[in-house]
Amino acid sequence: MTRILLASLLLIAAFSFAAFAQTQGGAVWQVERYDIDVNLPQTVDGRDAVIQATLEVKNVSSSPASTMTLRISPSAKVSAVMVNGASHDFSGGEEKLAGTRTLQRVVLRLPPVRPTASVQVSLTYTLSIKDNGDAAVFSPPASHLLPLSFWYPTPTNWYYSRGGDFAPFSVRVKGPAGKQVVSSGTEGTSGSFDTKAASQPFFAVGDWTAIQANGVQVFAPKGSGENGKARSNELAAVFSEAKAFAEKFLGPSPNAPLKIVSVRKGEGFADAGVVFVDEAVFRRPKVDAVTVQNIAEAAAKLSLAAKARDDGFGVISEGLSRYIATQFIGEKYGAPVADAVRARQRAAYSAVVGRDIPLGIVSPLDDVYFGEVSNKGAMLWGLLDKFVGRTAFTKAIADSLVDGVFNLDDVRSNFPTQKDLIAYFLEKPTEMNLLAGLPQAGVGETKVALRNSGPIDVTVNVRATTATGVALDAPVTLKATSFGEVTFKTPEKIVRTEIDTEKLYPQNVYFDDVAPKVFDENDPIAGVKSLLDQKKFDNAARAAKDILKALPAYDDVSIQLARAYLGLANYAEAEQQANTVIAAKLPTARSMAWAMEIRAEVAAKGNRAADALALVESTIVFDGDYGASYAARKLRTSLNGTTKIDPAIKDFFAKFDGAAVAHKKAEVFSMVMPGEITRFAENLSGSAAKWQTTVTQVDQIDDTECLVETNLATQLLAGPEQSGLAVFRMIKIDGAWRLAGVEIFEVN
User: Fold this and answer.
1) Topology (CATH level 3) of domain 207-305
2) Which of 98, 294, 393, 708 counts the most CB atoms within 10 A of its CB?
């Protein structure tokens, strides 16, 4: 841990040095406004956008400034620079981030710009996107550019410890004919948008059905029908209600239009009143927990994203947003649902806790960043809320926001009674483990040994469960790095003990909070799954039931219990658990997908093949989890289920196979959606000795999209023959099918 922390400190120090006067403590340039014109590719195979970005930049230092360094994607080719309307020379360079990531520098030598004066800088450049990703997509069906693609020039990049640049912006986008444009702010004419609040420029282009509901504009996938309309109304209500709830903590939010945009990639992005949602949500029978959480966090970020500044800004922009969103979920869907959401957050944090970095210095360059600042950060805000009380908590936040900048110094000064707690979270990695010992019975009482290995005192609840299922609670305060003991006055036999039942504190290890220990996994889902993988179905069922006693709405565990019942051939109980998940208030998409697959398994065991096949198709189209889709496909094969296969798709794969084996790279790429699965296509077109695709099933998503299940027989030039199941996503463009994704590849 010391080496990791030292490396992070050195990296941040080096990064700050590279940025010289453009980081906190010596800031020189502050963007006052972005004004950007974008001409997207106008052809199906186009990969280049022509962009002109104009920045109004102010000298915020105390001295004249004559050098400005702008950062932009290395995929941008700058052709011209203008300063205050006149052509200007520039030099380039590379700025290394971490690993192989880099940014391009555009360095300008300027006539001295006095303090408080502004300069206008304009860049004309071509941005090329080879591979589509979450942050940047150029594609015939839909395109978008998000801040993390670094598609526009700016003095301070997002990876700096103090965060990126935020400013009002205007964007004008010329997309392919017939496509719509969406960004934040108010819409003008011909794909133009003006955002008055400080934000980071972004936009999306696509083909949507716009639905207005609850003061929110929802851009649902075109053709999603009544189901899409119903989900749009539900999501709009969530956004509107979450905004009102967040304002109880943060005060009035900026007056920005609220928009929900369906996308194929980039779901979860949120800024300035806009949130991206997976387009599959609009095909499903109900909304899921992750989507609701993302929308609720977007509502909180309306007030926080641009105001969270300086070192550790993610604790505020991500951590506080997540805490408020989880509180909203508890109010709207009930405390048990919020408890399940927090359990998922703990599991996500436990995956990175072994590489934990203090919240005050963790940087977006660190691969643990989001796992830490959002989940561990939310725990910090939860403890502050609990210890000072809601009234004092909201006042402290209001005091922090009053000057328009919210940083960690505000957290320290506005929560003066919690200095030790705050210092621990911000200045140290997680060093805490809370342990409960086995119950030691005496005469009319049972004692339980406790331990706190952490460097701060904790006040937690300890629970003892008797042989008859009675829960006995006792609040306990444990000093830092100390042992303790709690006594339960009861003649009943105590069979289980647990410390910190609310799981308030981040810990290195969670599984030894319980005695006797059930499994050696921090994530309870992984713990139950490990028992299932060992075919210890009785043990898995007992462990799942034990978890569900404390977390009855934890649908992920309910699914594991259903799978344990399947293993025990208890099909009635398996189906009941699956039905419980489907009927739950706010399950995850993954759990809903598995619930449908389990119901299909039960129907098949009951010789109800038609019902089973209908549920299989629902699971596949639901598109909620790789494992559930794979299991459903295997079940369909065992039941000899069939689907209608378009002859054009068979012809497509016959031609594709021929081009692959003939190593005709251009022909292979002409059959692939531009920007998608490029590495797959490159490897295939250069190394396939054998490539034989047999189409077995086609699952239609809509008129222009389908999932094609195949049996694939392959051999690369330097490898053995292989075969197995492969599922490809296909999209129809201008009447012709193209490969758009490899969804399942079980070829070995």
Assistant:
1) Neutral Protease; domain 2 (1.10.390)
2) 708
